[in-house]
Amino acid sequence: MTTSERIDLLDHGFVRLDDAMASDLSVVNAARVSFARRKEAMDEADEGLVGFLMRDRHGSPFEHNAFRFHVRSPIFVAREWFRHRIGCLTGETDVVFVDVNGSTSPRLRKTIEELWLMWSRGERDGHALPEETRLEVRRLLAEGLSQRAIARRLGIGRRAVRSVIVGADGYRSGRARVRRMRLRVLDEATGEFTVGHVCDVIDKGVQPVYRLTLADGKQLTLTENHRLLTGEGWQTMRAAVGLVGDGSDASMTRSCALLTNGVPAHRNPEWLAERRREGRSVAEMAAEAGCSYHTIRKWLARYDLGFTREDRLGRRPWNAGLRGYRTSLRTTDAHRDAIRRARSGPRSNFWRGGITSERASIGRWTREQAPRVHASFDYTCQACGRCGGALHVHHVVPVWRDETLARELGNLVSVCDECHRCIHRTRATELTFGRQHGIVHIAELPEPPVRGWKLTAHPVSVVAVEYVGLRQTYDLSVEGPWHNFVGDGVVVHNSFNEFSMRYAKATDDFYVPAAEDVRSQVGKPGAYTFEPVDAELAERTREELAAVYETAYATYTRLVEAGVAREVARSALPVGAYTEFYWTVNARALMNFLSLRNAETAQREIRRYAEAVETLFAERMPVTHAAFVAGGRVSP
Q1: Are the C-beta atoms of 393 and 379 separated by less than 8 Å?
Q2: Which alpha helices (DSSP H) does 451-534 contain, by range?
Q3: Angle at CA of residue 574, ends 572 and 577, nearest 5°
């Protein structure tokens, strides 16, 4: 990476071009694809074509170019930046979550509105008082009864009475649960689905939305600017379907295929064909797809991708084409019987000592130890505390997680039949029980291989677009490296992933403006002008800001060291604190950002960041940038 790809800004900030799949030539080839033409180098005619596309607002060829920026800026600059996330989904959109094996089910699905309610309002507290009881507590408080008297009269605890006094509404925070849920995301490098996590749920307000209908019956309702993964890369909905007009007059003018929820990898002909081109064997493909050898062979044959004899041997057989081939070897029944006797039992090269499989042997040993284990735990279930009944011996650290502990008595506990079934319901419940029991630090053990089939995305054509009207909309922010998720079965995108002071300790970097950047605001809203202040006021401003920052960070540090959670202690930090985030954007949206933020009317600090972004953009796409400037700095 060259030094020009990182530009330092303000006192502690920077913009870094983390990755880019962008060039002027890709714009030209995207525009000429309708004529089945492709070029390997730019010429003057191509530069004229880019200028024509910019002038006549043909924006889709620019959307095939993607940039990913790494940004470090004060929080107040980041908030201005985040306003450029304009694509969003309606509340009834189903978001796909998965279990520890990567499988989903109806009970694991949440609508994006349900996620917003869990995020903003919280979840119903099962231990909270019923509404009628809370009303009765309030009535008795109004009559002047003490907390103890109310608790005795209603048969509830004094803590429950106090919860009514402090205004508890029967809900508890659901953010931790939302962040732990396993979100299905697409690994864009391999085309296979993996797991990500939600880091924010955003209310985007009421906006006009459209409903897409796919050939397989799937429907997705979203704004025209939300980005979808098409066969041609990430595109806004309007660009993907060639939407012309607005509202009820809008119509679809081009065919489009969207990547949708997964199919097993071994059933995907593109996945199989790619592995065949790479020279993978059937066994290697089966191991990667998580299925059997014979399943791979069956689907290879179905798609006419099966191996021939030459593929298996890797060369032409030495006797190919020969006629009259004979061998001098002659065997009789007695001869064959002698061979069998000579190769049977311990004399066979397949002899393994006459023992059963390792897992069966572990099971036998575990059953032999059961009386000792149950006696050591006084015949009491270590999960629910019930004594007696049908007891099982359970491995606290599952055998699949660490086989070296399979025959350790200290790794065995007694559990009842019902609890044993609940513990083994999923891998997550097994690990949760292990952590609660505290025998070993399970988090330090190596991650096991994931069970089940791998899933890959597959394209499905859009057949209709319909204007729905104004609807409440939401969006998700997803932890990287892949900022996408599956909504209503379709792969959709988000643009930002921010440094979290909930998980990492905040740094002591704060924005102190240079003396020339301390300014006064003159005028009325919409017509402000900013004038410099005198040197004495500028220096006093810098000193007072530095003092506030020092006090705020000292408070934050004391709270964290005293045991307060970082997500609570960070409330002490001002908006001048630095944060980091990644921003993924196509060239068309980037030019829209530059037209708004690298302008005279933009805030001075974010304008400097926009200038840095434009510098990096111009280095990668000089012809496009020149056409953008010549066209009045208006995005196509």
Answers
A1: no
A2: none
A3: 115
Measured between alpha carbons, how far is 570 from 298 in angstroms, rounded to an integer? 56
Class of residue 462 by CB neighbours under 10 A (exposed 0-12, middle 13-18, buried 19+)? buried
Q: What is the pLDDT of residues 169-180, one digit of tens each?
A: 567 778 888 988
Q: Residue 268 and residue 272: Cα distance in Å, rounded?
A: 6
Supply angle C-alpha 130, 133, 137, rounded to 5: 140
Which residues of the chain fall below pLDDT 50? 1-3, 439-450
DSSP secondary structure code for residue 541 in this structure: H
Query: How far apart, in whole angstroms, are the C-alpha atoms of residue 588 and residue 93?
Result: 27
**CA dist., res. 338 & res. 374, Å (int):** 52
d(CA 492, CA 227): 6
Query: What is the structure's pLDDT at 280?
Result: 87
Q: Which residues contact 177 (CB under 8 A, 6 or more apart)?
A: 118, 123
CA dist 567 and 577 (Å) reads 15
**Does the active-site annotation cover 347?**
no
Q: Who's near 596: CB < 8 A, 6+ residues apart?
A: 84, 602
Please say whether the dihedral angle defined by the alpha carbons of residues 174, 176, 179 and 181, taken in this order, is positive or negative.
Answer: negative
Q: Which residue has the tokens 């000292």?
A: 554
Closest to 517 (Cα-Cα) out of 6, 9, 8: 9
Sign of the dihedral defined by the CA atoms of residues 561, 564, 570, 574, in that order: negative
Helix (H) or strand (E) holding 264: strand 257-264
Compute the residue count for the chain: 636
Q: What single DSSP character describes residue 510?
A: B
Which pLDDT belongs to residue 274? 87
- The pLDDT score that the predictor gives to residue 502 is 54
Distance set, CA 217 to CA 240, 252, 513 (Å)? 18, 17, 55
Separation of first and last alpha carbons in the chain: 30
Residue among 597, 604, 607, 633 flagged as catalytic: 597
Q: Render the burial of 618-635: b for 16+ CB within 10 Å, e for the rest.
A: bebbebbbbbbeebeeeb
Q: How far is CA 16 from the centre of its chain?
A: 22
388: left (phi over 0), alpha (psi -120 to 50) or beta: left
Q: For residue 96, give the DSSP letter.
A: P
Residue 529: other Cβ atoms inside 10 A = 9
The radius of gyration of the chain's CA atoms, rounded to the nearest angstrom, is 32
Residue with the two structure tokens 């094996």:
101
- Whether pTM > 0.85 for this model: the answer is no
Tokens of 184: 């299905």
Q: Is the distance from CB of 439 to CB of 411 less than 8 angstroms?
A: yes
Distance (Å, rounded) from C-alpha 636 to C-alpha 572? 43
Residue 2 has what pLDDT?
Answer: 40
CA distance 413 to 438: 12
Which is nearest to 222 in space by CA: 47, 546, 473? 473
Structure tokens at 359: 């897992």
Q: Which of 132, 160, 130, 134 is nearest to 147 (CA)?
A: 160
Strand order in the sheet with 13-21: 6-9, 13-21, 66-74, 578-586, 496-498
Beta bridge partners of 212: 220, 465
